[in-house]
Design a protein that fits this description.
Layout lengths: L2 H11 L10 H7 L8 H5 L12 H15 L10 H11 L4 H14 L3 H6 L2 H8 L5 H15 L12 H9 L6 H12 L8 H9 L9 H11 L5 H14 L18 H5 L2
Helix pairs in contact: 4-14, 5-6, 5-9, 5-11, 8-9, 10-11, 12-14
Length: 268
């Protein structure tokens, strides 16, 4: 699928441009052999129109079972929201290693975010090139920093969650996932970033309505996750998505959640 096709599919799924990676869901749908049924319902292993919002205890049960496989991750908020904002932009459509290399090159070349804001876009592109998509990420980073105009976002630690989130998503190129990353990793706020793995695993487990747009999935995670569970929910669902619940070849026979997973139970 070319870039134009990916963006059109993102619009169909209700995805933001920052979340085009969520379109590996399409690869899952293509390989299901759904035989004329609504593929969005087949994805979650249930008939069209039968999904019901689960109670919060379902997520708690999922996390308890995943602890036996992955342990219990502990979040350590770092209190640097602008750093997290830039890092999250760099993470889009790349792996963690390339993201980190790009971030370190950016910080080594510029001694402050104010210096990054003033730098020519070409210099920013060169600094972050190892992270991929530098021609689009560089102007996005500078536009975000220009919009902040020196605001260090520290006030978000104690602001109402909705107010802080709304402020972040008003920044250019910032969607719900990026906003949630800033709030969770910087301040330990009760917001769970829904990336491609969280969306795929959560949909298969029935946490999200089949084909729910990302904003809806984020809202569901806010409803399901207690503040003390937010970091664990994000990290554990990602780990599970990477190790067992992959897009194209999930290892349901090894999955500790298979007996409670509608999607696993629906597989032939």
């Amino acid at each position: 699928m070319d870039e134009q096709g990916r963006r059109a599919a993102a619009a169909d799924l209700g995805a933001a441009p920052e979340d085009l990676d969520a379109l590996d869901l399409l690869a899952v749908l293509a390989g299901l052999g759904h035989g004329g049924k609504d593929p969005r319902s087949t994805l979650a292993g249930m008939a069209p129109g039968t999904w019901k919002a689960p109670p919060p205890r379902r997520l708690r049960t999922i996390l308890e079972r995943l602890r036996d496989s992955y342990g219990r991750p502990v979040g350590r908020p770092h209190g640097a929201p602008v750093d997290e904002l830039v890092l999250t932009v760099l993470s889009q459509n790349t792996n963690d290693r390339n993201r980190d290399v790009a971030y370190e090159r950016l910080r080594s070349r510029f001694d402050s975010w104010a210096a990054v804001r003033r730098a020519p876009v070409g210099e920013l592109e060169d600094a972050i090139r190892p992270g991929g998509l530098a021609p689009s990420k560089a102007p996005r980073i500078r536009n975000i920093l220009e919009s902040l105009d020196g605001d260090d976002l520290g006030w978000m630690a104690g602001a109402p969650l909705e107010q802080a989130r709304d402020h972040l998503v008003e920044l250019p190129g910032v969607g719900r996932k990026t906003a949630a990353c800033v709030l969770l990793f910087s301040f330990g706020r009760q917001d769970v970033p829904v990336d491609t793995h969280v969306q795929r695993v959560g949909t298969r487990l029935g946490l999200f309505r089949p084909a729910a747009p990302l904003d809806e999935a984020h809202d569901e995670m806010l409803r399901l996750a207690r503040r003390e569970d937010a970091f664990e929910a994000h990290v554990s669902l990602i780990r599970h998505g990477r190790r067992l619940c992959s897009a194209r070849a999930p290892s349901c026979e090894l999955c500790p959640l298979a007996r409670m997973c509608p999607w696993a139970r629906s597989r032939p």
